[in-house]
Fold this sequence. Notes:
Elements (H helix, E strand, L loop, with lengths): L2 E5 L3 H13 L3 E5 L2 H6 L7 E4 L8 H9 L7 E6 L4 H9 L4 E4 L4 H13 L6
Parallel strand pairs: 1-2, 1-3, 3-4, 4-5
Amino acid sequence: MTRVVxxxxxxxxxxxxRTVLLVRGYDVLEAADGQEALxxxxxxDDVVLLxxxxxxxxxxxxxxxxxxxxxxxxQVIMLTAKAGDGDRAQALAHxxxxxxxxxxxxxxxxxxxxxxVTVPVAPV
Length: 124
């Protein structure tokens, strides 16, 4: 079973995604900020849904730290209110498997997770 790690400082976003993902058969782990995400036992087979704007360690820093694991890096999908092309380009350049902006359609999130679990992690 694929585990999805939802990293967002918004309880409402985490709760909604948890419900959607559990109904779809995923195992779900939540983290409220970047520090919690980096402290969590995130493994290679996980998919991480990662907000960008969080207090303390932001999503781009978390992304870089996770991708620094090399072959042991999980797939990371950025899920953020930052809709700028520069933000998207930065995330993809640092190895994000996808980039979705808020508000999002839960079906789009699930489709992107499905793509991420079928594609091997690309080296950065």
